[in-house]
């Protein structure tokens, strides 16, 4: 099967994510097998997810949010790099890279800050697709207040990084199924 992903894009993934050429090839193979050409559109993403089982309306909305989270640059398609980040999430990334990617995933409006609403939206979506425990959502306000040390309604890069490295932050990552 052919691919339209350019050599440069493949090299960028391999370099940026520090992957061996065989790992990169395997990822490219999975990407191509999704049959999406160079990028995955929102509709293709939904089709792919629905192949994994029946999708209720509520879950479709949650998957919409997941799509927004995977679309790190917010250009409405998932490219090979964004796909690779998602696929190797648990194994290959350093803590620093994970935190950087989580920041970009949760910053839905791309204003370079994380608000309570954004964090809640991310955890809620994770709960709906069963990555997170729903019950824990009730105290998200407290969690955010703790992360922000009660000082702010939005966290910038550095504050988010520090927050995620705290015990509360680890709890949050756990909650989102990201640890
Ligand atoms: Ca994108
Ligand atoms: Ca934001």
Automatic annotation (TrEMBL):
Domain called EF-hand: residue spans? 58-93, 94-129
One GO molecular function term?
calcium ion binding
* PROSITE patterns attached to this UniProt entry: EF_HAND_1, EF_HAND_2
Cited CDD domains = EFh
Q: Which domain of life is it from?
A: Eukaryota
List UniProt keywords, sorted A-Z.
Answer: Calcium, Lipoprotein, Metal-binding, Myristate, Repeat
A Pfam family matched by this chain, by name? Answer: EF-hand_7
- What family does the database annotate? Belongs to the recoverin family.
PANTHER family tied to this protein: CALCIUM BINDING PROTEINS, NEUROCALCIN HOMOLOG
What name is this protein filed under?
Answer: EF-hand domain-containing protein
Species this chain originates from:
Macrostomum lignano
